TrEMBL record:
It comes from the Bacteria. It comes from Periweissella fabalis. The chain holds residues 264 to 413 of 413 of the full protein. Residues 1-150 form the Histidine kinase domain. It is found in: Membrane. This is histidine kinase.
Length: 150
């Protein structure tokens, strides 16, 4: 369905800027992708919710989250960056697996089922896109989504 990108992304991030502010986290955006694209609005919304929820979950107050979008070679690129605890090389290999969570303890201090990123991967797959994770030592994680657009 035709989606106007600026309006769509702004709608998605609205609650997150508020939550970040309440948690004393810096939330910034660099939204270079504009115009009308054909994407599944609800599913891409859900994908962004998964990535932004994680970014908030795995950062502490004083740390930062950013969302960047751009269009390059007929692809919509979405990056969710955080300056949180980062992600180990071991975990990087498995984060998209079903039920994988870095915290194995039953304490569920950070909550979650380990299904979020599995669903994210599935949403990206049905759009014939790609999702990758990078970490920036000593701190922080970036999830990058590349979606072919029309
Ligand atoms: P939920 O299902 O509620 O999202 P979850 O966060 O445990 O719970 P996933 O979203 O699938 O599940 O994430 C899997 C694992 O990937 C997490 O347990 C965590 O170890 C790691 N992870 C995901 N996002 C980040 C991030 N931004 N920074 C650090 N680790 C992350």
């Amino acid at each position: 369905e035709p989606v106007e990108l600026s309006e769509f992304i702004n709608q998605v991030i609205e609650p997150y800027s508020e939550i970040a502010e309440l948690d004393s986290k810096q939330f910034t955006t660099n939204l270079m992708a504009t115009g009308i694209v054909l994407i599944d609005r609800q599913r891409i919304h859900q994908l962004l919710v998964i990535l932004l929820d994680n970014a908030l979950k795995y950062t502490e107050s004083g740390q930062a989250i950013s969302l960047d979008t751009m269009i390059k070679n007929k692809q919509l690129i979405i990056m969710v960056n955080d300056t949180g605890r980062g992600i180990s090389d071991q975990a990087k290999k498995h984060v998209f697996d079903r039920f994988y969570r870095e915290d194995k303890s039953g304490s569920r201090a950070t909550g979650g089922t380990g299904l979020g990123l599995t669903i994210a991967q599935w949403i990206v797959d049905i759009h014939k896109g790609k999702i990758t994770v990078e970490d920036f030592k000593p701190q922080g994680t970036t999830f990058k989504v590349v979606l072919p657009i029309k």
